[in-house]
Amino acid sequence: MMANEADVQRSMATIRNIEGFPLFVHITRLLALGQPVPVARLAQTAGWTVEEVEAVLARHPAVERDEEGRLVGLGATLRPTAHRFTFSGGTLYGWCVSDALMFPVLLGQGGTVTSSCPVTQTPILIEVSPDGTLSVDPPEAVVSRVRPEGPVDDVRTSICNLGNAFASATAAAPWAAVYPGVEVSTVADDFEVHRQLLLELGCAQEGLRS
To answer: 75: which of 14, 22, 100, 170 is 20 to 30 A away, CA to CA?
Structure first.
């Protein structure tokens, strides 16, 4: 399945407006190990200085830390949210459902994404591999996403809080109508848009596939 190229490029433009996006990739892989991440370790992994990392983190008001100052959330999080990815190595949560759908590509591991429709409270179960969605229950489930133009000052507020899974397009429609710019797509399409985006950015993880 090939995603609509316009959707991929629109998402690419948004990603490029998120300052320090490579840190989101590195922190996802580190948090997938199941423990809070010291800033110094993130800096070492990214090839940045601690000062450079802290400067970027300071511009993301939603960054999550524990009482020791270690990172527990930046897109991916160890703190439970409505969007969970369970894989052979453990459990990782996303600030939005699209985050959780990107984890298999970033980690190179298949697993299960679970979410819940904010309108009907219907549980949504998605079996996914690094290459695509394997099953969606309920089959008519959809996801919402927003792709603002220009700099993104608060990823969680501006983008992630509007990225949910819905039991159906019918359930999503009145909710989406309240928020200008929100798009609704199938789960498979959302996954493929982000898979191709991550491939173009060179962020897909190879060699770890289960």
So the answer is: 170
Smallest CA-to-CA distance from 136 within 146, 144, 126, 145 is with: 126
Task: Domain count for the chain, please give it.
Answer: 1
pLDDT in tens, 54-105: 999 999 999 999 999 999 999 999 999 999 999 998 999 999 999 999 999 9
- pTM of this prediction? 0.91
Closest CA to 156 of 56, 75, 70, 83: 75
Beta bridge partners, 128, equal 111, 133
CA-CA distance, 142 to 85, in Å (whole number)? 17
For 26-51, letters b (16+ CB in 10 Å) and e give: bbbbbbbeeebbebebbbebbebeee
Residue 207 lies in a domain: no
- C-alpha 6/C-alpha 23 separation (Å) is 25
The answer to whether the CB of 183 falls within 8 A of the CB of 145 is yes
As a 3-state breakdown, the chain gives helix, strand, coil percent values, each rounded to 5, of 40, 25, 40
Alpha-carbon gap, residue 144 to 137, rounded angstroms:
16
CATH at residue 143:
3.30.450.410
Domain of 166?
A: 5-201
Residue 63 lies in a domain: yes
For residue 171, being part of any structural domain is answered with: yes
- Look-up of token digits 């789960």: 187
Phi then psi for 100, rounded to 5 degrees?
Answer: -60, -35
